[in-house]
Automatic annotation (TrEMBL):
It comes from Ambrosia artemisiifolia (Common ragweed). Residues 1-16 form the signal peptide. Keywords: Signal. Pfam families: LRR_1, LRR_6. This is Uncharacterized protein. InterPro entries: Leu-rich_rpt, LRR_dom_sf. The keyword Transmembrane helix does not apply. Gene3D superfamilies: Ribonuclease Inhibitor.
Amino acid sequence: MWWKTAKLVFDTLLEAESCLQVLDLSENNITGWLSHFKWGSPSCSNTSRKISKSLKSLRVLNLRCNNLQKDDVDCLKYAMVYMPNLEVLNLSENPLQDEGIRNLFPYLVEKSKCETPLAELHLENCELSCDGVSQLLEVLAATNVPLKSLSIGDNHLTRLVPRELEVVKWPGG
Ligand SMILES: *[C@@H]1O[C@H](CO)[C@@H](O)[C@H](O)[C@H]1NC(C)=O
Ligand SMILES: *[C@@H]1O[C@H](CO)[C@@H](O)[C@H](O)[C@H]1NC(C)=O
Ligand SMILES: *[C@@H]1O[C@H](CO)[C@@H](O)[C@H](O)[C@H]1NC(C)=O
């Protein structure tokens, strides 16, 4: 699939108010697929923009190996209002780099204030450095509801994070 097809799939599901719980688009090349959401409202509590349709039952979004870039991550915070109950986000094997992960921070902060916060985040093999991952951990630790599970294996973390640290669990998580 390329981005226009993925956009069509997402828009069609949204338009139909699909009851889908798991959307798996992994192993495609869909960079740009959510760029039309960039003009929405980046908050789950912001009612200034009326949301008429949403994918209310969507809990798992698997975007593994989709050639997603930093701008795609930026669009996620705008798309989140359409996926209010998302709990598992898999962005593994995308060339997000540290800049991409920083674009995810506003999403993580906003999402932690939502009724259904994110529980699992997969960021394996995303070309992250230990600086990016350290900042990510700080942001997560400061959010209202931290993740239950985070995978950050296969990144370049040699300076700070031990190789074994692939799943971080918070108390109570
Ligand atoms: C991925 O898609 C973009 C355009 O959407 C294209 O420029 C790029 O060459 C594609 N990459 C691969 C590996 O197919
Ligand atoms: C809601 O979103 C608008 C832009 O769409 C922004 O100007 C406003 O500050 C936001 N309000 C809150 C409470 O986030
Ligand atoms: C997310 O991707 C990883 C590979 O990076 C895979 O092991 C894992 O099963 C995926 N999780 C989900 C919920 O799809």
